[in-house]
Amino acid sequence: MSGLLTIFRNVIESELGNGTLELPVVADLGFSWRPDKQHFFPRGSERSVYPDWMATSDAVPLGAGRAELMRELTGIRGAVARAAALDEEERADLRRRVESLAGPYEEYFTRWFEEHGVDWVCAVNMTLSDAVPVTLGLHRAAARRWPPGVPGGVLFWDHDLFGTCAIFEDGARVYPPSPNEFTPVPGTHPCHRWAVISPALAEEVKGYPTRLEATTLPNVLPTPAPEGPGDRHASFLAQRGLAPDRPLLLVPVRVFQVKGVEIAVAMFAEMKRICAERGTPAPCLLVFGSLDEDPPYAKEVVSVVQELNVQDDVVFLDGVPLSSHRDAAGHWRLDEIDLLALCRASGGAVLFTPNTSDVESVGLGPALAAIAEVPCAVTQYACFEDIYGTRSSCVRMSGGAEIPAAAGRLLDLMAKNRQGDPEVRQALRRDREQVLRAFDPDPWRKLLREMADEVDGPGPARHSRNGV
């Protein structure tokens, strides 16, 4: 699952039983409008299993076939990104194409809100221009449902924004560097609220063409699993032929072009070589993401695995679920909380190795390592010190020539952690305390209470509170 969705899970599950939510939370995960996720159209992976508190949609608001729709959405996204270079005729054509899709999505959202009695909709990363017709349709549907004076509305919750998400495909920027005339931004209607996940994103928002200010809401981390693995953890290892005494290395990212999985594989191969020299058990590498999400990049990663001859020790988990469960074949699929528990019990570590410095807005890998109190290796990326400070015990590297030395340092930290070295244990505890302070869940709790109070308080007729 995307990190965005796992964080949303953490937010919701931290609030269960507090009286701010009515369940189920209805969710459209966007697979009908994300052109880069066409292999998951329209509901996600066939193996996806969602928590009991979530009811997902598989609606496709347009009659067009998948291939046709994905081509059009990709074309619109590319044109929006290069809007500054379009002439007037091209701009008029782009407006027509956007409108032809915005209408059906406006009607879909309008029906969806009414059917489920939605008071608040959480629009995750919809300020970015992945599908501006859908965002425009959402703005219009929200304005119809929550006119001035009617409580409720849209919380735009952005983890990435234009300037700080410099993703390129085939040499072209996927998103424009800043909003343009084709990109709806929050603040066009009184029913909008806006939240971003870091001070840097809040600073970027100040330059956007809107009067609406964005609140900074830190990401909410998962609650670590109880100490010691249980039966499902043992079954998971046995079903994958993993010896319980092997340290587990987690790569908690999707197999997507900017995530640098190939760097993690190269780091792992070097660690395996060093372990052979030292005569110590070699670790095993568990990659969270699915090879189906970005097939061209996945092919590159698999090629690196084969070239380095580590295919027997690398496991692609095909997407880590939101909740641990047995699949149809009876095999355990563990969520990130259970995987962190296994990593901790095995004396393992986390590898977080983006290959692009200016895409991550937080980078959760070091945070997940910190809450599990295991070491972490990290490539250099722009916002690391803003989020984690300078005292983090992470092994930091730029990749390439620095990998061998970094691999040795990480193995040393892992060994000392397993041996109970006081200095290393203290550093890992310090990181955990710092991360828990930085990712404080209280701002989210406060916001959800405010939103619940708004729709529960005196005022005009209200909808039934049954979703976020």
Strand content: 5-15%
What structural class do helix, strand and pairing data support? alpha/beta
Averaging pLDDT over every residue, what do you get? 90
Low-confidence stretches: 460-468
Output the strand order for the largest sheet.
11-10-9-14-15-16
Task: Output the helix-strand order.
Answer: HEEHHEHEEEEHEHEHEHEEEHEHEHEHHH
In DSSP terms (H or I, runs of 4 or more residues), the helix count works out at 14
Shape: globular
| Number of E strands | 16
Largest sheet: 6 strands, parallel
Rg over C-alpha atoms, rounded to the nearest angstrom? 23 Å
C-alpha end-to-end distance: 19 Å
Structure at a glance:
The protein is of the alpha/beta class.
